[in-house]
Automatic annotation (TrEMBL):
Cofactors demanded by this protein: Zn(2+)
MF annotations from Gene Ontology: ATP binding; cysteine-tRNA ligase activity; metal ion binding
PANTHER family linked: CYSTEINE--TRNA LIGASE, CYTOPLASMIC (PTHR10890:SF3), CYSTEINYL-TRNA SYNTHETASE (PTHR10890)
Gene name for this UniProt entry: cysS
Chief location of this protein within or outside the cell: cytoplasm
Entry similarity comment: Belongs to the class-I aminoacyl-tRNA synthetase family.
Organism, as annotated: Cryptotermes secundus
InterPro entries, A to Z: Cys-tRNA-ligase (IPR015803), Cys-tRNA-synt_Ia_DALR (IPR015273), Cys-tRNA/MSH_ligase (IPR024909), Rossmann-like_a/b/a_fold (IPR014729), tRNA-synt_1_cat_dom (IPR032678), tRNAsynth_Ia_anticodon-bd (IPR009080)
Protein name: Cysteine--tRNA ligase, cytoplasmic
Length: 357
């Protein structure tokens, strides 16, 4: 399983955390069902946002990415997630990225233009199969960069030449096309291939990455390796809003995990709140989500305090079949939580009856 990880230019917000906990549940479910699972989640540690953050803070790209990678790990560990099998960084795979770009150039799916290297979307007949977007109807100038260097406005950068800021911050590498840095999309194609091969089972990420990021990953990878299916299954978690509005700096409504933790909210409460809604559905964060999750967990904790743990440890207990089946059914975590509530109610009833005796 490959999941698109964070771009480390700022502390993690609840949208980042939703993706982490959703795929953590999937990872642990797959391990429960199959035993061994290889889970790769990358770190994007070179990107325009990181470079801008380094410029604004008069720091280096490496310092910014290292600091925010550490804070990401600290915040996510508070929510009791399992570490992925591998967590490659883009900057540690530059040679592999360059080789993949060279392969795309040799196969006629990419071209060099004014020290840029672009992928030709017209060279790949199945482009837009994942997102359903027509090439001629794409929103050029918004999510797709407009450039006179391109043959087609939908073509996307595989390699970008270094500019003055890159030289100032040392955010560039040598390549056959001159000094520069990779485009975002090629990073994930290179790292998934490096750790999982041409074909693997599951690719995950937020629905906001479906286009253009995941669409472009498919085009690159399937074009580079003839006969490849790349990822057999695609999993996307839904959008997260705050009081029905998109999180943004302009609205001052970005909710950081670190701020929640510093306010005294436990990571397990945040995790429960983010898992109450089915992963594919949009999730709206309101002022009540934390208090509701805290109340639910308190109920479970009170129940566990009354259970004879020593007796339980002596029993060869099995995980509830209904609980597992709920998760296997398109990762229906809300249904699995309902089953936990039903189990808690039965245990409570039994305890009350025993007390009467």
């Amino acid at each position: 399983m490959y999941v698109c990880g964070p771009t480390v230019y700022d502390t993690a917000h609840i949208g980042n955390a939703r993706s982490v906990v959703v795929y953590d549940v999937l990872f642990q479910l797959l391990k429960f069902c199959y035993g061994k699972v290889t889970y790769v989640r990358n770190i994007t540690d070179i990107d325009d946002k990181i470079i801008n953050a380094a410029s604004e803070k008069n720091s280096s790209v490496e310092s910014i990415s290292t600091y925010y990678t550490r804070t990401f790990h600290e915040d996510m560990r508070s929510m009791n997630y399992a570490e992925p099998t591998y967590e490659p960084k883009a900057t540690e795979n530059i040679d592999y990225i360059i080789k993949l770009i060279e392969h795309l150039l040799q196969s006629g799916h990419a071209y060099e233009s004014n020290k840029h290297v672009y992928f030709s979307v017209e060279s790949y007949s199945e482009y837009s199969a994942l997102s359903g977007k027509e090439i001629d109807e794409l929103d050029y100038g918004n999510r797709v960069e407009v450039s006179e260097n391109k043959k087609h406005p939908g073509d996307f950068a595989l390699w970008k030449p270094a500019n003055d800021t890159d030289y100032k911050l040392s955010s560039y590498w040598s390549s056959p096309w001159g000094e520069g840095r990779p485009g975002w999309h090629i990073e994930c194609s290179a790292m998934s291939h490096a750790y999982l091969g041409q074909d693997f089972d599951i690719h995950g990420g937020g629905i906001d990455l479906q286009f253009p990021h995941h669409e472009n990953e498919i085009a690159q990878s399937k074009s580079a390796f003839a006969g490849s299916v790349f990822a057999k299954y695609w999993v996307h978690n839904g959008f997260l809003t705050v009081n029905k509005e998109k999180m943004s700096k302009s609205l001052l409504n970005i909710i950081k995990i670190r701020d929640l933790l510093h306010s005294g909210i436990k990571g397990e409460v945040i995790r429960h709140a983010l898992l109450k809604t089915h992963y594919r559905k949009p999730f709206d964060w309101t002022k009540n989500v934390i208090s509701e999750s805290q109340e639910t967990l308190n109920k479970f904790y009170r129940l566990l305090r009354d259970v004879d743990v020593i007796t339980i440890e002596k029993i060869d207990a099995e995980v509830s079949k209904d609980f597992v089946e709920a998760l296997i059914n398109d990762l229906n975590i809300p249904e699995a939580l309902v089953i936990l509530h039903e189990m808690a109610t039965k245990i409570n009833r039994t305890n009350n009856e025993n007390e009467k005796l």
